[in-house]
Amino acid sequence: MHFRSLLFGLFFTLLFINNTSAFQSNSEVGVLVLAHGSMDKTWNLAIEEAVEPVRDQHPVEIAWGMANALNMQPALEKLDAKGVGHIVVVQLFVSSYSPIIRQNEYLLGFRDSLADAPMPMMIHDMKNKRMTMKMPENLQPLNVNAKIVITDPLDDHDLVAEILHERIQALSEQPENETVLLVAHGPNQEADNDKWVATLENLGQKIQRLQSTNGTMYSNMVSLTVRDDADEEIHEKARLAFRAQVQKADDEGTAIVIPVLLASGGVEKKYVQRLEGLNYKWSGETLLPHVNIQHFIKKRVEEGLSEINQRSSVN
């Protein structure tokens, strides 16, 4: 019996070693975080703080910008220099339905061609507090030695719904008489906007389910985008629709306006300007700072590690 136990112990030890070697050690897996970035140091610091816990287990680099090859390439090279064999890409963007995400996929080798016109590359001069835009010429996929795993943006993740629910609860007094407006930046293209709004509606449904555990639900959930960067006609239409929805919510009870933005950097103030003269509740709090974004980053890294493990098992 003793000899048989030793054999079983040896078998499971070898099995464990095989599985863990296939999974890759943490030192062999780097993390590239993609986020918009801002001239506002508070915005960037909020991202840095959310990413910090991952640094204890993996080499981490942040590439700021909208699919900015000028920042992504050096970040990849730094991770390469640290000897990583795989890189998990965490996209800290609110929505998947954007040219930014599609250009990220092209630059990282997940698309054969650009799906949209190239995104302008933001060049931040933090010392002089200036930002310039550069249009890329002959944009090509980036050079990287490591194997890439790319994960999805925030979208309608449960962790995002939990944050938004907390933001609403902080303002709510009589949920049955309140209309909650989830308001995001939004894209330029109509097809993207439809999907973006649908994602917000999914978040609204999740928020209602969370609220129902308190014995009551919000009177209504409204999802919309402000489309700041769209053509003037589209932008103006979105502005009027925003005001009309807030006015309607106020006529029927109480309007609670919640910005679905990653971090505070000034964009949320434009919402307030659009609603001048209307009655509504507003805190201006964005998704960050909140521990759930740390949890989201960790979960995305875990998903990437799982995919690396599966690839290694197949190979």
Overview of this structure, please?
The chain has 315 residues and is an alpha/beta fold. The protein has 2 domains: 17-154 and 291-314, Rossmann fold (3-Layer(aba) Sandwich); 158-274, Rossmann fold, CATH 3.40.50. 45% of the residues lie in helices and 16% in strands. The protein contains 9 helices and 9 strands. It has helices at 2-23, 41-51, 69-81, 99-107, 158-169, 190-212, 232-252, 267-274, 291-314, and strands at 29-35, 60-64, 86-91, 121-125, 130-134, 147-150, 178-184, 220-225, 254-259. The strands form 3 sheets. It has a 4-stranded parallel β-sheet, with helices on both faces. A 3-stranded parallel β-sheet has the order 8-7-9, sandwiched between helices. Strands 4-5 form a two-stranded antiparallel sheet. Helix 2 links the parallel strand 1 (29-35) and strand 2. Helix 5 packs across helix 6 (190-212) and helix 5 packs antiparallel against helix 9 (291-314). The longest helix has 24 residues, at 291-314. Mean pLDDT is 88; it is low at 1-25.
